Amino acid sequence: MRRSDRHGRRQNASLRNGRGRYECRAEALPQYEGFFAEFYDILHSSYDADLNMYLGLAREHGDPVLELGCGTGRLLIPLAAAGHTITGIDLSRDMLTRCQEKLDIEGKATAERVSLVQGDIRRFELGRKFNLIMAACNTILHCTATQDLLAVFATARKHLAPGGVFVVDFCIPNVKSMIESGGEEEVFEVIHPVRGTRIVDTYKATFDFVRQIETVDTRLEEWDGHSLIRSACARSQRGIYFPREVALALRFSGFKVAKTWKGYRRGPLVQTSRDIVCICKVNTSTPPSEPPSRPSSERPQ
Q1: Domains in the chain, please, with CATH?
Q2: Half-sphere exposure in the Cβ direction for 275 (13 Å, CA)
Q3: In Å, what is the CA distance from 288 to each residue of 143, 144, 167, 239, 291?
Q4: Percentage, residues of the chain above pLDDT 90
């Protein structure tokens, strides 16, 4: 996921008036496959607000680095280019393919520092430990069930080297904004950087505050003038988590939250904070509680 999805939907897109009834008759795709993987990469290509923080953490704690939900390499590639040995894991083959294509352009020296793994961040075994593990940019919000969140944290703990840190960052829910915008359709446009075509993104989010789940319906269309080239739609769900819930899940999983920052510029949390970064270490004085026997059937990206 994707920092811009929660606040101000799109970093590199222009808003167009477009509210109404959502209807999708296009090809249905998983959230991060096909057209959606390409659109995600275009949309987030210049977003780097968190990059300096993660570069600093990598310098401080050293290699190797593991990124959970690495996507198309927005963070992974700059970290590798800076000299760090990094492994990225993601469920989407198409996202990893685009990441590899970008690595090929970067050159051999950078590509050789990277290992890409297609896998589920709730359950994987890499056979090695990492000094820095990153669950960046709302990745944990793909865990729509508590047992999924605990499974991700337990797997991260198993892969964390002694003295290493596990970093989790996510957006703090803005309930007022959710209530005001829930069910409204918004339309954004992005210009394709290679073809010059228009990509129209029609987006609607609804919120279930009892189950703490956000459901997102998205329709993508690519237009060349007045001609529709392709279209696709997807429905996805995300968890709604507050800081205290995540801190409790981390403690349950055998971590202690060593530091809490209000976003990427650090500093203490305040009432108006929109983002939170948790710097976590293994709690050696208290063993982790037993996690659920199996994750839910939901598949986080």
Answers
A1: 3-29+175-239 (no CATH), 51-173+242-282 (3.40.50.150)
A2: 20
A3: 19, 21, 18, 23, 8
A4: 79
As a whole number of angstroms, the distance between CA 116 and CA 233 comes to 27
Q: If you compute the radius of gyration of the chain from its CA atoms, what whole number of angstroms results?
A: 19
Asked if residues 52 and 264 have their Cβ atoms less than 8 Å apart, the reply is yes
What the block records as the tokens of 122 is 């709730």
pLDDT, tens digit (0-9, with 9 covering 90-100), for 226-261: 999 999 999 999 999 999 999 999 999 999 999 999
- Whether the full predicted model's pTM is greater than 0.85, yes or no, is yes
Q: Where are the alpha helices (DSSP H) in the chain?
A: 3-6, 35-43, 51-61, 76-81, 93-106, 108-111, 146-159, 175-181, 243-252
pLDDT in tens, 115-147: 999 999 999 999 999 999 999 999 999 999 999
* Identity of residue 197: T
Mapping DSSP onto H, E and C, the string for 153-211 reads HHHHHHHEEEEEEEEEEEECCCHHHHHHHCCCEEEEEEECCCCCCEEEEEEEEEEECCC
Residues 6+ apart with CB under 8 A from 108: none
Q: Which CB contacts under 8 angstroms, 24+ apart, belong to 262-268?
A: 264/49, 264/50, 264/52, 264/53, 264/169, 266/53
Query: For residue 202, what are its two tokens?
Result: 């029609």
**In angstroms, rounded to a whole number, what is the distance separating the alpha carbons of residues 75 and 224?**
31
